[in-house]
Amino acid sequence: MKFPAKKEKWxxxxxxxxxxxxxxxxxxIKNAITPYMKPDEFTLAQLGGAYLVRSLxxxxxxxxxxxxxIGGDFGRIKIRTRSYTDIADENTKIRVELKTKRxxxxxxxxxxxxxxxxxxxxxxGHWPAYDSPVLTEFERLYYLRTxxxxxxxxxxxxxxxxRFGENLRITFDMDVRSADSSSLFPATxxxxxxxxxxxxxxxxxxxxxxxxxxxxxxxxGLKIVANSKYTRGIEISRxxxxxxxxxxxxxNAPARLQQPGKIGSPVGHRRQFSN
Length: 275
Hints:
Largest sheet: 8 strands, antiparallel, barrel
CATH superfamily: VTC, catalytic tunnel domain
Number of domains: 1
Shape: globular
Order of helices and strands: EHEHEHEEEHHEEEEHHHHHH
Radius of gyration: 22 Å
Helix content: 25-40%
């Protein structure tokens, strides 16, 4: 997919509010915001339809980024590479991103590189020479934390921007799925669908929401939810990575075996042989 030319911006900060909505709510809300919002340039490039987003997330061997997100750690950092196509060629642009969260505020730093540079990094662990602090910091964190590509997340996004020049963006992410992967473009990814009947609504702004939007959120009874595609993807695609296999087996064991102190339970078994 070819996007309109866009001047590179290394860093932007904003507030992100996320909601899970049904298909019915999606059509209702989409119609309700039409007087205020219009398709952004990425959606227009798809003739008004949703466009593909594919992200490869990096983490440590023990999934530090996952656990930091679950724990709500302040200042946590997420790094990823992103493509807007599932088939790469020499003209494909790859977006390199660093994302940090401080409370409800998010700051994202990004830089576009050609596919050849992405391929070089995947092979050597080093970016070709670029005057980009994003690539420098990405590589520094890659080695400092011994990061490796862990998860591929893909979805289709409908993006909207304000008709009145406000710094406001609304996106609808649908058909979210993930796969255990070490590449943005694996030959045969085994995708697992996250929530087939739900759509992720995100409101992104740098200041207070306009009054019409606040009213709409109340009208449809929308509730803010923690909705990290990465953590959801890990839990679906790599449950063994966040829950030890022995723990999964114990959780599925008969209730009598799970009661501490009972004969046959792990605790009771240890007590039989203690002095």
